## 1
Amino acid sequence: MMTLRQLRYLAAIAETRHFGRAAALCHVTQPALSMQLQELEHMLGCRLVERRRNAVDLTAEGQEVAQRAAAILAAVADLEDYARREKPPLIGVLRLGIIPSIAPYLLPRALPLLHDRFPQLDLRIRETQTAPLVEELIRGDLDLIVAALPIDRPELETLNAFEDRFLVARQTRAGARADARMEPAALASEHLLLLEEGHCLRDQALSVCGALSSNIHMAFGASSLSTVMHLVANGYGITLLPEMAADMERTDRVELIRFTDPEPVRTIGIAWRRSSSRRSDAAALAKVLLDARA
């Protein structure tokens, strides 16, 4: 009889298309994952994967089985949520996904609050970009994700936690007023430094700047916000910095300037599967995040 473990391994292969990365995602050795997939193939009587030198492809049968496996795994996760629906929020295991432009700035303040208020919580954290977090949430690998909203997926529900203003970060300039605000038109002569594709912060900054000016020169490719800020400090351009990151990323060589009203913001919130019973957990977590933000 096939097992949920085998289906999870197949789902990991479908996501990563790589045995090593799939094994790491499942916290098992690569030989153990490969053996379980071979047993699943033998049980079903068909090939599910095509093993290549540096990658893995799913066969047509493998794609169909992986799609059905994702639905089964999500249903199992929802069944587990249903069984715990009468319990107080944030008790037991919670698999939480969070994006890189939030995790290092909010978690250090939020985790002590979670520990104090919910001592029975067993928190498992996964940090990566929004798109993979959403897919992992939908197929049941995660229970909640913290990300910038909106997330336009009909399978999910979301709850706003707070708004995070955008600041302009630029190399410190002599004589600049501490209370100065930047007019949108002032960005037209600047080089805008952004994260590489796949980061929602990049898309949000493009959206903000696209609305502010059509003449902005843009440069791309940095993999972390800290890298972008080092480039700003050395005079390579400016960037839009979320206010929650200001304390950690601020240096003497960078000045942070607020926009004139109305200031652009991003909405930070929590998402969960519509079919699950995680609304109370999401509401409790949102309150912790709001308190941590304050």
## 2
Amino acid sequence: MRRISFLSFFAVLLSVMFFLIVLFVMNGMNKNIQTRIMALDPNITAVFKDSNADFLLADSKDYHQLRFDLYDLIIRTVDGQFRGVNAIGYNQEGFNYWNDKLLSLRKKDPYENDFESTLGENQIAVGIDIARALGLLEGDEVTLIPIETLLLSQMERPLFEKVKVQKIVASDLPDIDSQNIFFNRELTLKSFNKSLSKVSGYHLWLRSDAYLNSIVEKLKVHEFKSVETWKEKNSSLFFALFMEKTMIGIFLGLAGLIASSSVLTVLALIMSQKQSDIAIIKTLGLSEKKTLILFMKMGLWISLSAVTVGTLLGTGISYYIEKNPLHVLPHIYYDASIPAYVDLNFVGIVILVSGALALIGCYLPAKSTLNIQPAILLKQKN
């Protein structure tokens, strides 16, 4: 019985500890993704109805605005390899602003600190996944072709521009690294101004996310074709991350319930083996209520002590990982570190739910002591 009790204690302890660690690590990964998106992806994208419009948006202390041009292009290398890309154009000041945000995220990476942000005439910056897929290096020459060129007949001359890869950018965001190239809209791709795929507007980065809804309402008053927030743009990603965390939490929770069922086994064995002893202590004057509380305490001592120790260990290890992220993954991943983010409200919920389940689980087996009739049981034994 003692051996089973120790096994039950450690099973519940480990279940609660790993449950918290895994979910807090996933919280940290989700927070890292959100931080990168809010830093590098515009918080609000306002698109003109007319791509060649020259509408000036009033400056505000609540956000930083960048005028942009966007093209759907085909990038082709000298080796004949090609793929579709999104070409985003800022002026030099705007690209410097975006680059400063990138460096602030990757300030610990000495390679990225050497980033040259100046984009001259016929120069582009390419996402690192595009460069890997096409085998591009800095200084290579590529050809950019508007996507509508695919619809031209063989007799028509396609529109294209040859540009030089000035820099390869690593942002650790899949949408940017695998889809985007950057250019100086004042110097490059001027011949594409009448392209059917051209989209123009403003990218806005907010000082605080609290202003998001109010600024969106103000922008909708202007003549914009659409106003999209970063939450709307990435809603599918965050829903997928939420579902992933929920399913992992459910399976880990079920594992914890299975482990805690061993406590019920311990109490059930005590009830079956100690019936005569229970009858004797009842005969000596212990009331049914006190007998029920006595055996509930046995189960609660095992379960609640395991939950408490497991919560302390899981929260402590998660705090350590939060302050000291583990850099154990290879750099082929977008996030090579293992972060964590501790949510004390969630810890409180886990303690309350675990305590309630432990109370119910200990009450049900101990309730069987109420059915023990001392006179009948001792008479049968004699």
